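Hi Y.,

Following your request, here is the sequence exactly as I used it, all 71 residues.
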Amino acid sequence: MDLFDNLALGFGVAFTFQNLIYAFIGCLLGTLIGVLPGVGPVATILSIASYCAFVWLLNLQFPVWPTFITG
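Below is the corresponding structure, written out as tokens. Let me know if you'd prefer a different format.
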């Protein structure tokens, strides 16, 4: 019976009003961005890859050591 209790708990959390609103907003924004020409998944992947490359190069130029963060 633990399986059904956990399943009911999962559905109870998933179908809260806040989670449903977030899912609706995510689907709406995904559809609106997907409709625009030239701004599709390829542009999104390239922007994430360029951001990761920037952060990596920034870390090479200005290294942050753990002792600097902790004090």
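The radius of gyration is 21 Å.

Thanks again,
Q.
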